[in-house]
Amino acid sequence: MVDHYLDPDCGYCQAQAHPEEKHVGDFGYLVGELPNSVVVIFNEQSHPGRVIVANKKHVSEMVDLTDEERNAYFAEVNQVAKALHKLFNPDKINYGAYGDGGSHLHFHLVPKYEGQAEWGKPFAMNPGVTHLAGDEAYEKMAADLRAELGI
Fold first, then answer.
1. Using CA atoms, how far apart are residues 108 and 94, in angstroms rounded to an integer?
2. What single DSSP character describes residue 102?
3. Taking residues 126-138, what's their average pLDDT?
4. What whole-number distance in Å separates Cα of residue 89 and Cα of residue 87?
5. SS3 letters across 10-23
6. Which CATH architecture fits 11-149?
7. 74 CB contacts (<8 Å, ≥6 apart)?
């Protein structure tokens, strides 16, 4: 049961309200929920394994969370990062939280591979390259992540 405000115009909030819907807005595919966050595969997979970890509460800033909520959220970001390391074996994971394009606190976790796209540079938000074709491929990645995350 959801015990916090869900914005009807927010993809991350609607993923919590309607978890049976696998598509999150026009940008992602739902992996599932952890106690304090929602995990979403970013549609654009120029960096294999790229996901978003959104806080369950519809807040725009970390300062809007209590210390306990923030620590629990970052523990889950770390849990997802460990799963990505195990499943995708990246050389590095970049973390991005910009927030001026959307008002719901979330982090992009972007596995990076030495010698491949954008190594040593910030990742692009939407370079228009997609490496997964269709829901079947997204569901396979989501199932692997669910198994690794225990959700």
1. 8
2. -
3. 74
4. 6
5. CHHHHHHHCCCCCE
6. 2-Layer Sandwich (3.30)
7. none
Domain boundaries, the chain: 11-149
Q: pLDDT (tens digit, 9 = 90+) per residue, 40-66?
A: 999 888 889 999 999 999 999 999 999
Encode 17-47: b = buried (16+ Cβ within 10 Å), e = exposed: eeeeebebeebbbbbbbbebbbbbbbbbbbb
pLDDT band at 128 (very low <50, low <70, confident <90, very high): low
Alpha helices in 30-120 (DSSP H): 67-88
What contacts 139, CB < 8 A, 6 or more positions away?
Answer: 22, 29
Averaged pLDDT for residues 64-84: 98
Structure tokens that stand for 128 in this block: 């228009």
3-state secondary structure of 112: strand
Residue 27: per-residue pLDDT: 87
Number of H helices, E strands in the chain: 3, 6
Higher pLDDT, 1 or 72: 72
Tell me the one-letter amino acid at 142: A
pLDDT score at 60: 93
